[in-house]
Amino acid sequence: xxxxSEQRLDDxxxxxxxxxxxxxxxxxxxxxxxxxxxxxxxxNNGLPKADARLVARARYTAARGYAVAxxxxxxxxxxxxxxxxxxxxxxxxxAMRAGEPxxxxxxxxxxxxxxxxxxxxxxALDAVLALPEIGGPVGYSGWTALGIRLAxxxxxxxxxxxxxxGYVPLAQREEARRVTVPxxxxxxxxxxxxxxQRALDLFDAFGGEQKTLHANLGGHTGTPWFELEDSCRFYDxxxx
Length: 240
Description:
Elements: E1 2-8, E2 14-20, E3 23-29, E4 36-42, H1 52-63, E5 67-71, H2 83-98, H3 103-129, E6 134-143, H4 144-153, E7 157-163, H5 170-175, E8 183-188, H6 196-205, E9 211-216, H7 226-239
Parallel strand pairs: 4-5, 4-6, 6-7, 7-8, 8-9
Antiparallel strand pairs: 1-2, 2-3, 3-5
């Protein structure tokens, strides 16, 4: 793990860019030197780690006393995408706009993205937890399919907040039954790209007994800001 830049933000949060092999990432840490819990904050594959919504979430969460780490997995952000991935993205967008079935395209495209991204996220988790200012435990926030895979694989993840998407690969729908950590699922009721009933069925599939569903009116990117405040209170309950 090699840090490539560092800046202190107005709220005292320290923002550091790093590389881990070919994987670029960002780490935000709160003021002070006491070891703090860590939140892995993942975006849907295809968005850069510098996406404004993710950065705002990360900075707010760090100011609340958490370390926050994110990475750009292969094909994400500035990392090169294959011609096949670009075609799959285009096919998926076209089918969704036309109201055509997208399950086959989604499964063949998103499934491998999750498989390829998980090892890079776990390597980043190992590297970040080795830093003296970060002591765990670990929470997860964001991309549902990847979060299911990580929570099913790694017992260090002690709580998870998922942004509900109805389209989750079949492998992760099966793995959801193995996810027993405390869970907060955020659902946009009018999400134009994710069927509501599938998201509700996924919530039922999770294996834990401590799971909460927050549903708000609005489209995919309309999650209210107060849900970020609530998610931090969720982490306060389960990570401190």
